[in-house]
Structures are given as C-alpha cells and as structure tokens.
Write a structure and sequence with these properties.
- The two termini are 20 Å apart.
- Strands 3, 5, 6, 9, 10, 17 and 18 form a seven-stranded mixed beta sheet that branches. Strands 13-12-11-14-15-16 form a six-stranded parallel beta sheet, sandwiched between helices.
- The chain is 29% helix and 27% strand.
- The chain has helices at residues 18-21, 50-56, 104-107, 115-123, 169-172, 178-190, 205-216, 229-237, 251-258, 273-281, 305-310, 325-337, 356-364, and strands spanning 2-9, 24-31, 38-47, 66-67, 71-79, 91-94, 133-135, 138-142, 152-156, 160-163, 197-201, 221-226, 242-245, 263-268, 283-291, 314-317, 347-351, 370-374.
- It is built from 13 helices and 18 strands.
- Strand 17, helix 13 (356-364) and strand 18 (370-374) form a beta-alpha-beta unit.
- It folds into two domains: 2-176 and 342-374, Medium-chain alcohol dehydrogenases, catalytic domain (Quinone Oxidoreductase, Chain A, domain 1, Alpha-Beta Complex), CATH 3.90.180; 179-322, 3-Layer(aba) Sandwich (Rossmann fold), CATH 3.40.50.720.
- Helix 6 packs across helix 7 (205-216).
- The protein is α/β, with parallel strands linked by helices and 375 residues long.
C-alpha cells in the first residue's frame, strides 16, 4: 500500500463558482498494490474534461465518494501478476473504457462497447470489480477505471496503451479522451472521405479534435460552430474553412449557404439537445448526423421521421470515437508527430492539483479547451 494525493468528489450537484463551493477536495488516500492484470501508474499529466464536470454537476450520476480524472498519461511504476507485456518505466496513456477482449462487442472488434467495462465504470470499480482506493477508512470509487487526478493510480492493464517515451506526457494525456473521441468520430464513426464536407458543433477539446480529424481526412469544407468567438478563431487556425457563432439566429442558414445545402457529416460535440437539433438541420440529404456530446440522461430529441426516410438520413452515436485503442492511439500519435494532427494546440494551460476547482470553473464557463494538471 502507498499513500497518494487525489482529488475526491464526495457529493454531486455543487454550484459554480467551484472555487468557492470546492466540490473536489485534495486528500491523502491509501492505494492498494495492483492486483492480477493491474498496473500501478505514476501520473505525469491529466486533462480536465467535460466528462469530469458532468459528474461534478450531477449530469452523469456515479457512486460517491469518487476519485475523479480519466484523461491522463504516466509512467508504469509497478506491475501486478500476469502483466507480461509492459515494463516498469514504460510510458502509457489511459483509456476510460477498459476492454475485456471476450464479450460480444469486443469479439466483434468494438472494444469501446465492452459490456464488462461499461458495468465496471458504472459501478465505480476497476475491470476486475475491485476498488483499490481508501480514504479515512472509507472505500473510494474509481472514475471510469482511471481516477487520474492523483499522483498515482492503480488501473487495469486493459485501461492503458503504451506510447513512445519521448512524447511529452502533457501532450500524451490528450490522446486518451479528447483525441481518441474527436478524431475517432470523424475517421471511425463517420468514415469521412477526402472531398466531403463537415461541420463540428461545440469546440471543446473533443470538438476541436474533430476539426483536426476532418482537416487531416481531407474534407473540402470544415465548418466550426460555437458560442465563443475565441474558440472559433482557434478553429480557423487549426484549418476550419468557415466559422459560425451558434448565437446567430440564422446560424443554420449560414452553414447551409456556405456548404451548398448542408454538410455530408455534422458532428454534435456540445452535449446539448439544442446543438443536436442544429446538427440535424444542417445535414444534407443523404448525410449523417453524428453525436458524441453525452448530454444529461434526461435529454431527448424530436426528429421528423419522414426526413429520415425520404432523405435517407442517418443519425449515429459515437462513443470514444468508435475506437480500437491499441490501433488508434499509435496511429494518432504518429499523425501528430508527422505534423498532421497538431494536438498540442488544444492545450489552454497547465495547472497544479490544488488549482483543480478553479480549473473546472474555466471549463464550465467555456473559457478553456484543455487544461492539463502536471504532476
């Protein structure tokens, strides 16, 4: 057992500003050694993501107390029994959906839909069903099998992917969530082809990763949509050919005009029903509307069903970019190192673990893309 500092959420539903309500407390916790097929990782960097924020505000209910953080990279510090394909000192990226390799989705090549992995994430355990965290005599739940807002974490071997040791950990962290989800939605879910058109609604870390993915895939037109003019400006720098502020009453009309009637693929990355409605409106006849935004469980969307039929429209969900992590993370890292996927441009700044509540204020207010805690 070792002791480590970790960001603990004791109850959901805190109100902003979080700098005042302080939903996350930094506590010294006891961390059990890694069990069979588990690994102890010394965390190097962890990104602040809306998936963390949605647990803090209660949009995504999880068992409490919980040690948050799921987008991270670090260095292997200790190996549990039967882990034979990693070594102490290896650099790894965490993936927030462990894949068992044996259930039907995994057998079909869809590890992002792993059934035991989803069950473990919902229960707040590792893939084995174990909880390795304790604080003041109370068992602490794991967040998506990672609990990475900490100096150390014990994770399933199925939750980490080895990456080159010369890749800075602050950059590597983004590949486990923002890049995997955003780029994957374009390449894997939509299968966008060169010369097609795309629009991305919601320019957080995942949305801007989708912009990068659409540009790298050779899209003829890439329309970036958000409420923030600063994020729209960044999207232009990253290769978006058009930008539209979602506050404009004629936003849909602007997009349809710019793209000659609508886009082949509209990506909803804001996690809101209104954004999804806009995405559907701007999708052309025969096109696809792809959503990866994870709205609250109560959100619904009324669709004109006749359009689905008469226009052969498709509405698709995308979870973790329909990824195969062992295939996709090395590919995306390779594209980044070749200069074709400038992931480092997504970083809004670095902060310490003690500044985490203030960081979530900036994320809540839409003032940051990806803030990274450096350990």
């Amino acid at each position: 057992m070792i002791k480590t500092r970790s960001a603990i959420l004791d109850r959901m539903g805190a109100t902003a500003p979080y700098a005042e309500s302080k939903p996350l407390r930094i506590a010294t916790v006891e961390l059990d050694p890694p069990g069979r097929d588990e690994v102890l990782v010394k965390i190097g960097a962890a990104g602040l993501c809306h998936s963390d924020l949605s647990v803090i505000n209660g949009d995504r209910p999880r068992p409490m107390p919980m040690a948050l953080g799921h987008e991270a990279a670090g260095v292997v510090a200790e190996l549990g029994a039967d882990v034979i394909d990693l070594a102490v000192g290896d650099h790894v990226v965490m993936v927030f959906m462990p894949s068992c390799g044996h259930c039907i989705p995994c057998a079909e090549g869809r590890p992002a839909l792993c059934e035991p992995g989803a069950a473990a994430n919902g229960a707040g355990t590792l893939l084995s069903g174990a909880r390795r965290l304790h604080c003041d005599g109370v068992v602490v739940n794991h967040h998506l099998g990672c609990s990475a807002f900490a100096d150390y974490a014990v994770v399933s071997r199925r939750s980490i992917i080895k990456v080159p040791s010369d890749l800075p950990l602050t950059e590597a962290a983004l590949f486990g969530c923002a890049v995997l989800t955003g780029v994957g939605a374009v390449i894997n879910t939509a299968k966008l082809q060169p010369g097609q058109t795309a629009a991305v609604i919601g320019l957080g870390g995942v949305g801007l990763s989708s912009v990068l993915g659409a540009v790298a895939s050779g899209a003829e037109k890439v329309v970036a949509v958000d409420l923030s003019d600063d994020k729209l400006g960044l999207a232009r720098q990253l290769g978006a050919t058009h930008t539209v502020n979602a506050k404009d009453s004629d936003a849909a009309e602007q997009i349809r005009t710019a793209t000659g009637g609508g886009v082949d693929f509209a990506f909803e990355m804001a996690g809101s029903a209104r954004a999804m409605e806009l995405a559907f409106k701007i999708t052309k006849r025969g096109g696809s509307t792809v959503t990866a935004g994870l709205p609250p469980p109560t959100a619904t969307l009324p669709l004109p069903l006749v359009q689905l039929v008469a226009e052969e429209r498709t509405v698709k969900g995308s979870y973790i970019g329909t990824c195969v992590p062992t295939r996709d993370i090395p590919r995306y890292v390779g594209l980044y190192r070749a200069g074709k996927l400038p992931v480092d441009r997504l970083m809004s700044g670095q902060l310490t673990l003690d500044e985490i509540n203030e960081g979530f204020d900036r994320l809540h207010e839409g003032k940051a893309v990806r803030q990274v805690i450096e350990f």
